[in-house]
Specification:
Helix content is 40%, strand content 17%. It is of the alpha/beta class and 310 residues long. The strands form 2 sheets. The chain has a 6-stranded mixed β-sheet with strand order 1-2-10-7-8-9. Strands 5-4-3-6 form a 4-stranded parallel β-sheet, with helices on both faces. Helix 1 crosses helix 2, helix 1 packs across helix 5 and helix 5 packs across helix 6. The longest helix has 17 residues. It is globular and about 55 Å long. It binds pyridoxal-5'-phosphate (PLP). Pyridoxal-5'-phosphate binds next to helix 6.
Amino acid sequence: MRFASVVDAIGHTPLVELKGFSPRPEVRLFAKLEGHNPTGSVKDRIARAMIEDAERSDSLSGDKILLEPTSGNTGIGLAMIARRNGYRMKAVMPENVSRERIMLLELFGAEVELTDGAKGSNGAIERALELAKDPRYCMLYQYGNPANPRAHYETTGPEIIDDLPDVDVFVAGLGTGGTLMGTGKRLREHNPKVQIVAAEPRPGERVQGLRSLDEGFVPPILDVEMLDRKLVVSTDDSLRMTRELTRVEGIFAGFSCGAVLHVGLRVARQMERGNIVLLLADGGWKYLSDELWTRSLERTAADVRDKVMW
Ligand SMILES: Cc1ncc(COP(=O)(O)O)c(C=O)c1O
């Protein structure tokens, strides 16, 4: 495919069948590989939509500084487009995000402010809301911006329908809720019986990019009524399934993808037949230095040594 710019190349990601995980031939699993976006995650879609929206409404102009609380992916997408469009950018993130995220943001010219890791993404949100009182900043605020779910309604949903018209279940991680809301709405218009299923981390456990609603913050764009099910995943299971994706299917993805796969397999085992689409939000590159990844590699080495299969 040929595009006029890298921003136009956002989306159009592949939908790949995961035959190795299917519990029976009549139940088919497909993964939408969002790591194929220009900065490596699904968030390029919403970064483009939110910036274009703000430019149209004149809330973003040359002298403003873009500001965003982010666990990394949204900030990186925004920073790439900000650099191309000539805006300054500041990202506010918990200090325990992986080093690669900070490096990528700095590479695209963004300033990074780190907040208390123990407070997770809620700490970053609090700090960004405080900074946003200064009128020099333009905060697009993915948690409350309607352009976030709209980007998925206009791009992710139609792409899935084009590639696989009969989707029975759609599974995605719950972060801002934008993917689930926008894609879910579009898929449901196409097939009112489609099940929309969220993967949510167990309260107190960390899966980068995802959030537990039980920790007190419900994103304004999220309408929980839209979800048919919300299944909880542990950090360990997310990590194990992320490794399984690489081992079984050769797909190198981020930790939230392991959480989505874990939930997808639980749903698949309860089905007689049907098609399940899993949205895999990013590739694995930005996690390589994460201690969780190192721990999982050590564990694999031990398993190989002891001849234990995962
Ligand atoms: C790696 C990763 N997975 C999943 C999500 C969840 O997507 P959404 O914010 O659309 O709910 C995010 C969002 O921050 C993310 O960074």
